[in-house]
Amino acid sequence: MTSIGTGYDLSNSVFSPDGRNFQVEYAMKAVENGGTSIGLKCKDGIVLAVEKIINSKLLVAGSNKRIQTIDRHIGVAYSGLLPDGRHFVNRGRDEAQSFKSLYKSAVSVPHLMDRLGIYVQNYTCYNSVRPFGIVAIVGGVDENGPHLYMIEPSGTCWGYTGAATGKGRQTAKSELEKLNFEELTVREAIKVAAKIIDQAHEDNKDKDYELEVTWCSLEETGGKHVHVPEDLLQEAIKLAKEDDDDDDDEEEDDDEEEDQEMET
Amino acid sequence: MNHDPFKWGRPNDATYGAYNHHIAQATPYAYEEQHASSTSTTTSSFPKMNTQNPIITGTSVISLKFKDGVILAADNLGSYGSLARFTNIERLIRVGKETIVGISGDISDLQQIERILEELETTQEVYDNFDGGDDLKAPHVHEYLSRVMYNRRSNMNPLWNAIVVGGFDKDGKTPFLKYVDLLGVTYGSSTIATGFGAHLAVPLLRQLIPEDKDYVNITEEQARECILNAMTVLFYRDARSLDKFSLVTVKNDGEFKFEKELRCEGQRWKFAKDIRGYGSAQQ
Question: Where does the protein end up (chain B) (predicted)?
Answer without folding.
Answer: Cytoplasm; Nucleus
